[in-house]
Amino acid sequence: MESLSSFLSPSYALKICSSKLSLGLALPSSSFFSTAAVAAASPLQRSGTTSRKRSSKPTKYLTLTTSNAAETEKTLKTTNNSSTTASVPPKKVLVPVGFGTEEMEAVIIVDVLRRAGAQVTMASVEPQLEIEASSGTKLVADASISTCCHQDFDLIALPGGMPGSVRLRDCEILKKITSKQAKEKRLYGAICAAPAVTLLPWGILRKKQITCHPAFIDKLPTFWAVKSNIQVSGEVTTSRGPGTSFEFALCLVEQLFGESVAKEIGESLLMHIADDSIRKEEFNEVEWSFDHMPYVLIPIANGSEEIEIVTIVDILRRAKVNVVVASVERSMQIVASQGTKIVAEKSISDAAESVYDLIVLPGGVAGSERLQKSRILKKLLKEQEAAGRIYGAVCSSPLVLHNHGLLKEKRATAHPSVISKLTNEVVNGTKVVVDGNVITSRGLANVIDFALAIVSKFFGQARTRSVAEGLVFEYPRS
């Protein structure tokens, strides 16, 4: 029997076991998600310690035919509405954050669980709600941890990052909440440094098989430490790092909501593109070289996709790129597509006073529409093209470039829901497409490949592999 942890790869492709699927979908059979039904029914009913490890056996890939994103969203809304009609209480999830929390991990966990229908509270362990994450992204929590101390949660999920994991460890309120969660055998989990730095000192990992970021694995008890991307041991789930965040979040979705919801969410996140040979395609190759550290602008708006914003920013900053996040709204704070609040560093008008080596538009349908309406951003993009400088977009935002006339005679890709609207030569089924000075991607779970492709063009394969290793993300050597 296989498990979720064995069919999701660090490149976010859904794998399948050797048995054939009649529909030809890259999704698990009904034997997968073996604990999901029990977890969804009642976490309190489970007893004993079980663990699931990633299989070391080679796994076959199949390509999943892409569904229209709107239909997927409609299905999920229908499911949620049915649940509401039946008066089923929502699954409550707590995601604590603090100064130095890893933003990719926090945001991906929150985004994916909200897509599944969970009521997620991002709670600050700091005196204020706004925190600066490990790579400098400013997030605004939904609540203070002190308001959560008398609540019961179906799941508590701790992101990692340093010193974020230490800030979580030293929060007495969070320790009390999580210890109570473990004592009552309700679901909890941690990723990256948090299993070793936060949970272990609290004494709630006894006799649990756990994993964490490779840099902290030696802090775990040798007998219980495992080197797997996902480890489920009873009510606790642990994972390795930013590059395994999608796997971790989807594993939590499985335990809360069951197999069918996890499948739908995995598909909506575009986690079905499994063949590494289509990771990136490049046309009209030109060298992206500079005599200075590259300067990159990431414009954001209400409705922008938070996964794409924080992932691009996080990875580029790990590679030591100078990144500016600018709001096209009147406010510096925007509310992203799944409700995450992100604070920009500049307004687009202030940002327009500088010249950028690269401008990248994150996706999100509502956010893309807001970006397209920005006259200042349009002017910046037009100047970028005229000067022969680099620009790109992910998810639904390649349509913005197209509508501004910036994809003429360029090959590009985009989210399946908008790719048919691009009249230029589209490249379907590829995660990242580079054509000269233009780079595009399908977005969501493919955005890690997109950001690493930028790093590769800027600095070459060696630095890209180094960044990927820090993420715990599998990256090809050639």
Task: Walk me through the topology.
Layout: H1 4-7, H2 36-41, E1 51-52, H3 69-85, E2 92-97, H4 103-115, E3 119-124, E4 130-132, E5 138-140, E6 143-144, E7 155-158, H5 164-169, H6 172-183, E8 187-191, H7 194-202, E9 230-233, E10 236-239, H8 245-257, H9 259-268, E11 280-283, E12 295-300, H10 306-318, E13 322-327, E14 333-335, E15 341-343, E16 346-347, H11 348-351, E17 358-361, H12 365-373, H13 375-386, E18 390-394, H14 398-403, E19 432-435, E20 438-441, H15 447-459, H16 461-471
Parallel strand pairs: 2-3, 2-7, 3-6, 7-8, 8-10, 11-19, 12-13, 12-17, 13-16, 17-18, 18-20
Antiparallel strand pairs: 1-9, 4-5, 5-15, 9-10, 14-15, 19-20
Helix pairs in contact: 3-9, 4-8, 4-10, 8-9, 10-15, 15-16
Q: What structural class should be given to the helix and strand makeup? A: alpha/beta
Largest sheet: 8 strands, mixed
Q: Which stretches are poorly predicted, pLDDT < 50 over at least 5 residues? A: 1-85
Please identify the oligomeric state. Answer: single chain
Number of strands: 20
- Proportion of strand residues: 15-25%
Rounded radius of gyration (Å): 21 Å
Number of helices: 16
Gap between N and C termini, in Å? Answer: 34 Å
Task: Provide the helix percentage.
Answer: 25-40%
Going across the biggest sheet, name each strand in turn. 1-9-10-8-7-2-3-6
Tell me the overall shape.
globular
Mean pLDDT: 85
